[in-house]
Structure formats: structure tokens, C-alpha cells
Amino acid sequence: MSDDADGGESGDRDDAEKDPGPYPIEGTALVKTAALASVPAARVPALLTQVQADLGPRIDEYRRRYERIAAEPDRETFLVEPDHWETVADRVGLSERERDAVVRAHEAAVERIGSGSGRREEFDTALEIRSGVVIGVDVESGGNGDAEAGANGSESDPDGGESDPDSGGSDSNRD
Prior knowledge:
Blueprint: H1 9-18, H2 27-36, H3 44-55, H4 59-65, E1 67-72, E2 75-80, H5 84-92, H6 96-116, H7 120-129, E3 131-136, H8 146-152
Antiparallel strand pairs: 1-2, 2-3
Helix pairs in contact: 2-6, 3-5, 3-6, 5-6, 6-7
């Protein structure tokens, strides 16, 4: 935070936090993935864009089938079965290393979302037995925004927690 005063790299990181690009992984999660991935760091954004292009149109299916653990205006977070990413990788043609980089990115994003909402320990525990998926929603087009999220996500939150997207994940009260 105080690093912003120098106008150096931390300013760039703040820009990444605000504008993740055509995929919902940003900031620290993206940097961590690029540093630890078994693919070139420059390749990670292209992989995430490719996967988002596949997952985005399927968001209604995810809302019906999986537990949504967080909803924000621009992305929704789900817990899925551990072998979920094998299916996605097959569908979009990812190598094993590329798939691993994408999994790492999504799980790092879930951890970051958990930290930001005060639910990091809960999310970490969930990731021990399941995998995380973060899907960007196009809020500008009005297609898959919060109104639909509320209607389609009601199975996982009968109390209507989706009405407060800034709550950082009040959508699901079950484990």
C-alpha cells in the first residue's frame, strides 16, 4: 500500500486488481500462478482467457450443478469435483502442464477471495477435497449478471444472500 507512492510495480499490480482482462483471475493470484506454473509466465493469461471463453457460456450450468461459494458483480466462484479440470482441459485442448497452471490460478483466486471475505480457512479446507472454479460474468451486457445469479443460485442460498454481492461470499451457508 505504501509502495504505491513510488509509482513503481505496485501501481501496476493495483491496475491488475481493477482490470483482470478477459478472465476473472487477477493480482496476486495471477502473479503467484505465473511464478509457479510449469508453463511460461507469458502464456498464463492466454490460457485463462481460453478457459474463460469455455466456462462463461456454461455459468448457468454451474449455478445449477455446483455450490457457489462467492458471487461478486464480475465473477462467481464454485466448488467442483476434483477431476473437473480434466474434462475442461479435454474440451479446450490443454496439455497437462497447461491444465495444472489453470487449476493453480483458479485455486489461488479462490484462496484470495476467501482471504478478502474473511473465509480463507473455510475455503482452504474445501480445496483439500474439491477444486475451485472462478467464472467471470459479463456485467456490461446484462446477460449473466447479478439478477440471473440470484434467480439461478437460489438452490444454494435459500436466504437470498445473492442480493449483496459486496458481502464477499454470503451466498452459501453449507459446507
